[in-house]
Hints:
There is one protein chain. The chain is α/β, with parallel strands linked by helices. The chain has a domain at 51-201: Rossmann fold (3-Layer(aba) Sandwich). It has 6 helices and 9 strands. It has helices spanning 4-16, 24-32, 64-74, 91-99, 110-122, 159-162, and strands at residues 53-56, 59-61, 81-85, 102-107, 128-132, 145-154, 165-176, 182-190, 193-201. The strands form 2 sheets. Strands 5-4-3-6-7-8-9 form a 7-stranded mixed β-sheet, with helices on one face. The longest helix has 13 residues, at 4-16. The mean pLDDT is 94.
Amino acid sequence: MIDYAAARLTMVESQLRTNKVTDEAVLDAFLAVPRERFTPPALRGAAYVDDDLPLGGGRYLMQPMVLARLLQLAAIGRGDRVLEVGCATGYGTALLARLARSVVAIESEVELARQAMARLRELGIGNVAVLEAPLAAGYPGRAPYDVILFEGAVQRIPDAVAQQLADRGRLVAVVQEEGGMGRAVLMGSAGGVLSRRPCFDAAVPLLPGFQAEPSFVF
């Protein structure tokens, strides 16, 4: 029988701390949230492998090390309101809930949203709202957000989502150039002006619906 608590500790000490994750609040969240509860039953034995885990339909649980570094990059405070784009089964949502005041998690796949709501309810996590909605539109009804996190790679960050950032808000995502390596980026909003800074290389699967628009060639 797998000792999941021991596996979680090994993940934090061997995968996260050794890969530049130093924020103790982020590390504590990864120690507290049982990733196996958000993983398909057939894959629970691999819940703490440092890899993206398939959920079916082209969706994945993001690699823990990349997710941890994105959360650290976002510098989430206890008073922050967060939008999570593409929550899948809710693992990232549960982590965010331990760091922020409130989380709006949107998911376009009905079954994944159902699973996320069930898991979060089972764990008694009450400061989140899981909403079925198109991912590329964000969720303007509860904007602005102090932090926006994309749970998967994108080839483009829609203006409609970036504009939902609060002043001095932070948006974190892995942006994958077509045919190239993904790179984690941090976007900030100050006085209505958006800035963008590349931070580290990362390879995670694309979120559906975030491919770049094809360019016109003569």
